């Protein structure tokens, strides 16, 4: 009988093979056949990893060339009008990345993770038509290898909940048009085999959905379960509890329910309902979002508690969510400290943990074979060592945090901005960028060579300074008014700081997909955080010495450092964040004492850390705002503090943004016109704002006319005195041949608008 289960698996490849082939294809250096070849090789490898680890339920259709939500839109025929004339891979990648004639679809965070999905655009005039090719083909590909998979689908209610309507209407009104497409899909799936298991992901349920959405669940799953007798449907939720939906789903004919017991502890409150329904419980007990080794003793205790309600025969041991959110394998971590490495588990290692947990739970320790017993004892020892390690607990840091009292900077915003404008002298519609410039292959090679001691410190620093000089020269020639140094020395906006802090660990190959081919390598926090020495002074003072323009100092904020790291799980997240904030407050003070007059403390991931449940938001906001304010608490009145936030709906957090009390905030708005900005006007937001005027996630170069129109839209919402003009985000991932004309056009557009004003 099947006893273990993986919700989903990473797809980028253990050495980022998918990223590499996609970027070659986009650059015109290989054809799409090569992309498909690499994709198939990866799928086969990933299925075999799971099969060889003893996993019973292995997924197909969890693989994607860009994003599973985009795949679902294609599957449903939900194609925006501007892409209707395209086909196949040109259609697919144009929707994701844009093309010379059409802007890309919007992108936003997948719940409270650092993964981004493409936001479907729906219209009541759409005619949805099933395209089941990908879904059916992947099942057949696995079956040809002798692997019978479950088929992963994003559920219809979640799809609608994550979409937007072009006429701003309610997406759920389209339920009646979408559901028949899913029914038609299941009818096709039913033809694939004698029995087929279909995992339908409905993570929207964990957000505490409103009654009208709850009212869709029973008719939806009654209908889907009635399509064919040979399909076993499992409705899966993750990242929180979904008790309201569970109370409905137990009264439908679904075969099983997948619940997250790592991040949704309150799911235990629904266990009696699950038990009475006789359904299978896919128990998410191995953390799919973090990298710490599972504590098998604690996990089996949790499973024993669950089994007091749900019969053991109806329990299937699972990951809490897809392993998409973890790195691939520890196999390549050859330089990592061996003790710290013993505390970690990536996706491949989690497969072994799931297998072992299920054996311990179902067979008992006494019945394990010799190899399994050794693995079980090693797990106990690793968890014991980590708990007691002196490398984790630093009494001096704990005392400093306990005694820290400076919780915010001096002066009101009105006082500060008056002083700052007088000293800094920047114009209305001041032009700047968010921070980074293209990371060329030469820059990346120089950093890599320095790390492996292939070049000297002097050679490395000379190369970095040459690049900074190039960035400054371009900005001056282009006409930008507030400059940045380009960040050539930074591999990543979080990892760079983590490398200079005690309590942080790093990987060689801990890559995780952020969106499309974009991968990040999050550092991990294993112990108390401190700063042995200043982190940015040398580079920032060098850059400022090379120009008479204002040079922004660039830091990453405490909440973003936290949210873009794998965080220790033995301490509340808010307390870890406070340690980071105190470290950053020292860095801010050092920068301003070194003559840096403008400091940007990026909180790109502030919104993504929000709890999914309304009742938990206040506590998060309290410590997140506290820690941003602590990080800039040392800034003098004349030091202008900027921050940057990535894709966010600001309506629900505008008061929180106000409470952060930054002097200037830049935000990503290019894919949504001035809609996101309107809330700033509605609430009477006083501080200055830099809405992105062009989308840096697309390779297309915006024209001067486009940017002029974008600025005009912004001026409909906020006065020129309050606006800065900048791209959507940092330019690290773009090429110089895209960046130069785009910024030149941006500066020209501002000149045109200023003349007209």
How much of the polypeptide forms β-strand, as a percent range?
A: 5-15%
How much helix is in the residues? Answer: 40-55%
Judged by helices, strands and strand pairing, the structural class is: alpha/beta
- Please summarize the sheet with the most strands: 8 strands, parallel
Mean model confidence by pLDDT? 95
Number of strands: 24
Name of the CATH first level of the largest domain? Alpha Beta
- As a whole number of angstroms, the C-alpha radius of gyration is 26 Å
Could you characterize what this model shows?
With 757 residues, the chain is an alpha/beta fold. It folds into two domains: 4-388, TIM Barrel (Alpha-Beta Barrel), CATH 3.20.20.210; 426-756, Alpha-Beta Barrel (TIM Barrel), CATH 3.20.20. Helix content is 42%, strand content 13%. The chain contains 27 helices and 24 strands. It starts with a strand and ends with a helix. The model has no long low-confidence stretch (mean pLDDT 95).
């Amino acid at each position: 009988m099947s006893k273990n289960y993986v919700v989903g698996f990473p797809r980028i490849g253990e050495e980022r093979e998918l990223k590499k082939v996609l970027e070659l294809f986009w650059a015109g250096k290989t054809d799409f056949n090569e992309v498909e070849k690499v994709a198939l090789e990866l799928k086969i490898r990933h299925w075999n990893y799971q099969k060889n680890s003893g996993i019973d339920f292995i997924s197909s259709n969890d693989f994607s060339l860009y994003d599973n939500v985009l795949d679902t839109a294609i599957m449903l025929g939900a194609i925006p009008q501007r892409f209707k004339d395209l086909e196949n891979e040109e259609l697919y990648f144009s929707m994701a990345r844009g093309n010379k004639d059409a802007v890309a679809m919007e992108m936003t965070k997948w719940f409270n993770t650092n993964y981004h999905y493409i936001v479907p655009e729906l219209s009541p005039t759409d005619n949805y038509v099933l395209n089941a090719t990908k879904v059916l083909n992947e099942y057949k590909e696995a079956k040809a290898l002798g692997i019978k998979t479950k088929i992963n689908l994003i559920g219809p209610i979640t799809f609608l909940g994550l979409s937007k309507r072009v006429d701003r209407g309610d997406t759920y009104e389209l339920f009646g048009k979408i559901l028949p497409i899913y029914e038609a899909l299941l009818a096709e799936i039913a033809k694939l085999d004698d029995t087929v298991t279909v995992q339908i992901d409905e993570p929207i349920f964990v957000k505490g959905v409103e009654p009208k959405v709850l009212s869709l669940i029973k008719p939806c799953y009654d209908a889907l379960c009635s399509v064919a007798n040979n399909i076993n449907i499992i409705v899966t939720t993750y990242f929180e509890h979904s008790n309201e939906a569970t109370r409905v789903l137990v009264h439908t004919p679904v075969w099983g329910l997948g619940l997250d017991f790592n991040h949704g502890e309150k799911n235990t409150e629904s266990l009696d309902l699950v038990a009475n329904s006789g359904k299978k419980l896919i128990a998410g007990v191995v953390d799919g979002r973090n990298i710490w080794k599972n504590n098998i003793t604690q996990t089996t205790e949790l499973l024993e508690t669950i089994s007091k309600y749900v019969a053991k025969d109806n329990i299937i041991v699972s990951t809490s969510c897809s392993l998409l959110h973890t790195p691939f394998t520890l196999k390549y971590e050859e330089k990592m400290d061996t003790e710290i490495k013993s505390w970690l588990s990536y996706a491949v290692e989690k497969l072994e943990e799931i297998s072992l947990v299920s054996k311990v739970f179902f067979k008992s320790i006494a019945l394990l074979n010799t190899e399994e017993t050794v693995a079980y004892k090693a797990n106990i020892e690793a968890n014991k060592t980590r708990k007691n390690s002196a490398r984790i607990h630093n009494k001096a840091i704990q005392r400093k945090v306990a005694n820290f009292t400076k919780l915010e900077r001096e002066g009101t915003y009105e006082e500060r901005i008056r002083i700052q404008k007088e000293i800094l002298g920047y114009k209305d519609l001041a032009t700047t960028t968010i921070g980074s410039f293209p990371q060329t292959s030469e820059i990346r090679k120089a950093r890599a060579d320095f790390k492996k001691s292939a070049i000297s410190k002097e050679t490395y620093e000379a190369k970095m300074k040459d690049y900074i000089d190039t960035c400054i020269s371009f900005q001056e020639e282009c006409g930008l008014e507030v400059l940045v140094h380009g960040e050539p020395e930074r591999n990543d906006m979080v990892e760079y700081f983590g490398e200079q802090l005690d309590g942080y660990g790093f990987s060689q190959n801990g890559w995780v997909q952020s969106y499309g081919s974009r991968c990040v390598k999050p550092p991990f926090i294993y112990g108390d955080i401190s700063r042995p020495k200043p982190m940015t002074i040398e580079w920032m003072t060098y850059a400022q010495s090379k120009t008479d323009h204002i040079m922004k100092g660039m830091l990453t904020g405490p909440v973003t450092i936290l949210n873009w790291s794998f965080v220790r799980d033995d301490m509340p997240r808010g307390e870890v964040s406070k340690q980071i904030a105190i470290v950053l407050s020292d860095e801010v003070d050092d920068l301003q004492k070194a003559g840096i007059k403008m400091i940007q403390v990026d909180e790109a991931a502030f919104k993504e850390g929000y709890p999914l449940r309304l009742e938990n938001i206040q506590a998060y906001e309290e410590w997140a705002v506290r820690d941003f304010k602590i990080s800039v608490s040392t800034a003098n009145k004349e030091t202008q503090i900027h921050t940057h936030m990535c894709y966010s709906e600001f309506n629900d957090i505008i008061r929180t943004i106000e409470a952060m009390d930054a002097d200037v905030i830049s935000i990503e708005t290019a894919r949504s016109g001035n809609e996101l900005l309107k809330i700033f006007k509605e609430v009477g937001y006083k501080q200055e704002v830099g809405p992105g005027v062009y989308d840096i996630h697309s390779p297309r170069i915006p024209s001067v006319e486009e940017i002029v129109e974008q600025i005009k839209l912004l001026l409909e919402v906020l006065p020129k005195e309050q606006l800065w003009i900048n791209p959507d985000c940092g330019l690290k991932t773009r090429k110089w041949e895209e960046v130069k004309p785009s910024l030149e056009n941006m500066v020209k557009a501002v000149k045109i608008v200023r003349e007209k004003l």
